[in-house]
């Protein structure tokens, strides 16, 4: 188990029944990056990965 698995599991446990928009998620990612600039690269990579999930060239 990776360390991040615990955070993902907590997210699912606490908020798994909620419905949110991708705009809401994008706002939370931007807010997180503003508060934690050291994670900017990881957040950018994650957001780009999510954005391109259906792109057959990636």
* Radius of gyration over all CA atoms, rounded: 13 Å
Helix content: 55-70%
Structural class: mainly alpha
Describe the largest sheet. Answer: none
Average pLDDT, rounded to a whole number, is 91
Terminal Cα span: 27 Å
Spatial shape: globular
Q: Give the amount of beta strand, in percent.
A: under 5%
Order of helices and strands: HHH
What assembly state would you assign to the polypeptide chains in this entry? single chain
Topology summary:
Layout: H1 3-15, H2 22-35, H3 40-51
What is this entry, summarized?
The protein has three helices and no strands. The protein is mainly alpha-helical and 58 residues long.
Care to describe what's here?
With 58 residues, the protein is mostly helical. The chain has three helices and no strands. It starts with a helix and ends in a 7-residue tail after the last helix.
Provide keyphrases for this structure:
single chain, 58 residues, mainly alpha, 3 helices, 0% strand, globular
């Amino acid at each position: 188990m990776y360390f991040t698995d615990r955070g993902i599991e907590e997210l699912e446990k606490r908020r798994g029944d909620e419905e949110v928009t991708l705009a809401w998620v994008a706002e939370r990612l931007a807010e997180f990056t503003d508060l934690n600039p050291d994670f900017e690269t990881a957040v950018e990579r994650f957001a780009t990965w999510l954005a391109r999930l259906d792109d057959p060239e990636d």
